Amino acid sequence: MRCLQKFISFSMLLELKVENLALIDTLNLRFDRSNGDALVVMTGETGAGKSIMMRAISLLSGGRGSAQWIRSGADSCTVEALFETGDHYRQLRDLLVESGFGDADQILFKRVISQNGRSRFYINGSLATAKIVSEICFRLLSIGGQHEHQQLLQPAMHLEFLDILGDHLEMRDQFRSLYEGWRRAEKQLQNLLEREREREQRRDFLSFQIREISEIAPEIGEDERLGTERNRLKNGEALIRLSRECYDLLAGTVTENLAVIRKNLEQLRQLDPGLEKLAEEIGSYSFLAEDFSAQLRSYSDALDNDPARLDTINSRLDKLTGLKRKYGESLTDVLAHLSNAGQELEVLENLDAEIEQQRKTVAALEEEIVAAADTLSTARRKTAAEMEQAMTRELASLAFDQSGVEVRFQPVEKSSEQLRATGFDRLEFFFAPNPGEPPRPLAQVASGGELSRLMLAFKCLLARKDMVETVIFDEVDAGVGGEAAESVARKIKELANHHQVICITHLPQIAARGSSHFRVEKKLTAGRTITSVSRLSETERVEELARMLAGESATTQTEAWARELLDKGKVAA
User: Fold this and answer.
1) Quick one: which of 7, 44, 24 has its CA closest to 511?
2) pTM for the whole thing?
3) Which of 91, 96, 160, 407 has the fewest other C-beta atoms within 10 Å?
4) Architecture of domain 1-145+469-536
């Protein structure tokens, strides 16, 4: 679990380009393994703009953007980064292919923020979502800064550190899946029990509905037929009167006259064959008149002004309307409701058996989830013991002699009532910085400098576990000085043996160990303040280290110390 083993190669950030971000006009930083850019240090005076660099990287990985960060006079700001990926990033490259960004050994990210505050993300030149960019950057880039310092002070994050260190994330995800299945089954059981409590009331209600509809026994289309009949009965007197008048008129002179005309045309046709067609047409009208007359007679005779039948129909229609008011817009809907109510009633009758089966399902899942949680807890406790030993070694290398970290698990009864989505375990990291003093929670005992070294020690332990191979430290040396500073510098150098490390620092001990050194500074150009970042030559590095050692009062002796420090950093392991 030590960070001493060197890897043959690792993936890295190759290029970072920034345009119109805060005080940055144009910035293009290139990193090359062949040039020894494994440990990149960035230094500069307070207020020079080192925080802008971190903001650029944060924006790239999906951090919140704002139009306020756009350089005055510009329409937008842009951040781009080019990463190299190795074959061991196969899962990541598969994700890129699945997301439509192609497969390559390099990944280009780009983010553009416009004046309206909106952002556009790109991967390999194609539009992308903030979510996918953040997910991919998470696998490529790790930022160790003040935010991560604060995470160490949060007991809720300690379980996350332990699971990453112990390679428990897959086991935890599997447990979470079981846990969610168990919770769903429990919810289904509770719903069934709630239905059971409401069953008698619901059963009575459904039985009433079924009985009400069945007793009336509606037929599809019945309401329309009865409505037509009701209209005839309501207008019976008028229908009888008008139909009889029509019959009398048609059956009287009209029919008789048409009959005489028909006979006369028969005689005319014999005298003049040219009248044959006319005789046939008028003859057909005569027969039609007789037929119409018969139909009117039948219709009139069938009419009945029956008040009792009208009352019966009205009563039936009232019942049908009542059913439609309760159960649907049509009798088809009413009969569908009858069918559904019958099915639900049958389910309610079989509810006891369903509840019993669901109880068995929940019990089986509960037994499985408790066993899985116990297995996960056992693995965590083993990892905790290993971590305590490893942290003791790491802290010793960071000038924490006889200091250690203790993982304390809260006593929890291993029952389903104590389960969370993460298992049984509630734990917290305790720290004993001084011999003879009892361990205390990190938040109570760790100073700024102690916290920085603790975070670095954790980073070193996690280095082998992280797929992330580019680590950025933002003033990880906060509050550190003296011998501790030298220890931090050595540890960062160790980490750079198998990670690309970019470190923003105020410590000359760390800066001297950088395989490449960039200076961040503010300049006044054409009346405007610009933050620039430049790679330092050997001579410039000596000058910068001298400034870091003595400020503006650097002397020849200070420069000699700086040169000595730089030479020492080159050979330091």
Assistant:
1) 44
2) 0.60
3) 91
4) 3-Layer(aba) Sandwich (3.40)
